[in-house]
Task: structure prediction
Amino acid sequence: MPDPHLLNPPQTLDEARTQIEQLWGVVGQLESIVSELKAQNEELVEQVRELNERMGKSSRNSSRPPSSDSTSQRANRKKKPKSTKRKGAQPGHEKHERPLVPESDVDQIQRYFPTAACGCGGSIFVDPEPRCRHQVFDIPVVRFSVIEHQLFGGQCNGCGKHHCAQTPDSVPSGQMGPNLVALIAHLSGRYHLSIRNIQDYLVEHWQLHFSLGALSQAQAKATSALGDPYRQIGDFVRQQPVAHADETRHFRGNECRWLWSLVCVQACYFLTQASRGKEAADRLLGEFTGYLVTDDYVGYNRVPESRRQLCWPHLIRKFIDIAGRVSNGGKIGRRLLLLAHAVIRTRHRWQDQLIDEAVYYRRMQRLRRSFHQTLERGARLRIDGRTKRQCQHLLKRESMCWTFLKDHRIPLDNNSAERALRPYVIWRKLSFATQSYQGDQFRPLILSIVGTAQRIGISSYQFIRIACHQSMIEGEVKVRFPFDTPRLATS
Result:
């Protein structure tokens, strides 16, 4: 506060000079206070801006899952316009009917004939072939089968030594046969049932009563049987020219771990790891040397930028977030969003053969230049520091946005990996966490087997059943995935 004596008029020149010096000192103090208040105000404004953006985060403008959206955010989602067409098949739709099963494969045939005489008094000659074949499908009343193995002993009448028969190697050591083990594994990996739900299913449908521990041991037997096919999937995916990678949380008890995925057109490979760091990504990728499609996560930075493609839908969500800001930052975001949509649209027009390859590459190069110029303008912003930092970050990684121009097999999105992880996310919500290392092994293995079988068009249950039979009865698992031909390999 200024000295009260400064308010009194000076009597001499020296007093006037002293008062002036004191006033200048007060002015300096006020300037420092004002500058400090400005800095605090700017910091508070930035905090308010970040809080508002955090409150406005949703699955539309961030990497958050749609299930995390609030009720109001779900209500504000953009909905597709209601179709004016009526429900069901449209006029001109090709009719689809279930094909008739050949008579040789029918379990029972019941034939019906007309009356022997017509109302006019004449005789009726029966056609040699039926005019209508109507087939009714049903399932039998199921019951488990039990095979009892009795071991007899005996005593030598010469030396008196006791002897006992030995179980053949083809007899399983436990109480579950290979078909039952395969069913338990398939109910987990394909239909996401928990151990307790599998227990209830076996009681309701098969009148089989097994403890939770016995069912868990059955999964361990399936893990042992499917180990070689699981490693085959990993080796196959790492040899592909293009692959997708993503990760999601996995819980063992209360500990947070991670489920990693590496996906290609014909196969998907999962791996459970304790961390989300670069070392975990390196273990997932192994000797992979192809093009890798991912989000902007730094864990994959071991892959050179020349072989890595960033997911454009992830970029679009980031641009939607930037476009919602005020001042020049919002303008930059809206421009980037417009360019991103143009990139997607141009790619689709080329894939639909609406434009030729020369036009496609010419338009992409023009969009690339505009994209770079917009990022440079955003990197020079003075007010919106967050947008500035995001643009500077994208400028450093801009080349990874356009890797798809090197090879037409590289997609613009990472949807393949996200769709592969979706069944596990559902399973995680339904079956809770694993409780042991055995569970951490079983989940990625069975997901890899089921997902790969679906991608190449074979029965995942038949594949698991054959593998369990070979492991438990024959002692050697020979079944492998037929990545060259879409049929089930049995040897």
Summary: Residues 155 and 162 are 4 Å apart (CA to CA). The first strand starts at residue 153 and ends at 155. Confidence is low (pLDDT under 50) at residues 486-491.
